[in-house]
């Protein structure tokens, strides 16, 4: 890990333009870059890599950079893994306001998969009122793909447990249904079946590029033990990007989305509970594969958080801050693993 003293470059740097809402009163909203030692005492140093970042913040006519850039952004980097973004004391005298912060990051010594986690302090009404869009571009000159669009408070929920960036396109492979009589799993397209008492076992899906095998390695049962609630999965030919699990209710109700983040296994894929608090039986699940390269090298990738506050008056005096944490692990000879789970 880099010497902590090298990180002091970032300590106390203020993005004056990251949403100035102060007006004549002098009260403002700012984004701060602060020193952040994500894994103290090398508690998670095994397999971790050193990240370098550069940040640009824009609001109205103001643009600021940390560190100062020697050329076009991003051209100058510093070693860092945690960014604290703060929006203090909203002034209601200003009307609708907006801005953005872009974090460019790279892993030069060894290509790595990069994970993102957002840790909020107190969300409050300001986080509910702020409309944000989070985009990711695997290269600085490319247009970003939208990762999230909604309120800032819901963004905290979406990335509170960490997620792999740049996992490529999430491509659907097919659906596996669980029938009642007989009790068996049936693969969409191929029609292959697997009785529940034959688990662990393998089914073949009719994927977009041809047949692909999925192994059901385990079952999860409802408390009474008479109905399957979920499954564990494994694959050799692809990595799981997403699994949608459908329980009871109508056609569009009771769907839970799991994101294994490009792993060869997907475990504890269980249905949600019904309104009465009882677990639902499994109806079917839809499998998606990772179809792209999630590795970041010396060519920087970019995260951009665009924000908008349509009406400052209801949140006068409110503030919010959160930590944007990044973690990199090498791509070679490793399977993706969420460092915070």
Q: Which characteristics define this entry?
A:
341 residues, mainly beta, 2 domains, seven-stranded antiparallel sheet, six-stranded antiparallel sheet, 5% helix, 45% strand
Detailed description of the structure:
Strands 3, 4, 5, 7, 9, 10 and 23 form a seven-stranded antiparallel β-sheet that branches. A six-stranded antiparallel β-sheet has the order 14-13-12-21-18-19, with no helix packed on it. The chain is globular. 5% of the residues lie in helices and 45% in strands. The chain is mostly beta strands and 341 residues long. The two termini are 21 Å apart. The protein folds into two domains: 4-166 and 295-330, no CATH class; 169-291.
What is the topological layout?
Layout: H1 4-7, E1 13-15, E2 31-33, E3 52-59, E4 62-66, E5 78-79, E6 82-87, E7 97-106, E8 112-120, H2 124-129, E9 131-137, E10 145-151, H3 152-159, E11 163-164, E12 169-179, E13 184-187, E14 193-195, E15 201-207, E16 210-221, E17 228-234, E18 240-246, E19 255-258, E20 265-270, E21 284-291, E22 295-296, E23 301-309, E24 320-330
